[in-house]
Amino acid sequence: MxxxxxxxxxxxxxxxxxxxxxxxxxxxxxxxxxxxxxxxRGNYLMLETPPGEPIVQIQRVDHxxxxxxxxxxxxxxxxxxxxxQLGANVVNRLERWVVMEAxxxxxxxxxxxxxxxxxxxxxxxD
Length: 126
What we know:
Blueprint: E1 2-13, H1 18-29, E2 44-46, E3 55-60, E4 66-73, H2 76-85, E5 89-93, E6 97-101, E7 107-112, E8 123-125
Parallel strand pairs: 1-3, 4-7
Antiparallel strand pairs: 1-4, 1-8, 2-3, 5-6, 6-7
């Protein structure tokens, strides 16, 4: 048995101006940039997250700009196996997360628990 839920929206930006990208998305979404968040470092800037809402993170990438989701879980291996049974494919296994691709081509990540209150609003998979 394990749990999983939508964790975050990641806005992948192929840009040399990460601060400018974060300013745009901050204004567009009405969330302030949170430079003191532990996730704001290097190629990543976090926007403030209201309680109970998904994280929004702006990240500098080398591939084309796109948006992807993160699914957080208390058992990454079990969640990856569940999603693979649904038709997703593993693209890359990294140290702390797994990149997957849906049968329709969208990439997403399976990550360890990131948001407080887990497993509130998470689905229990038996």
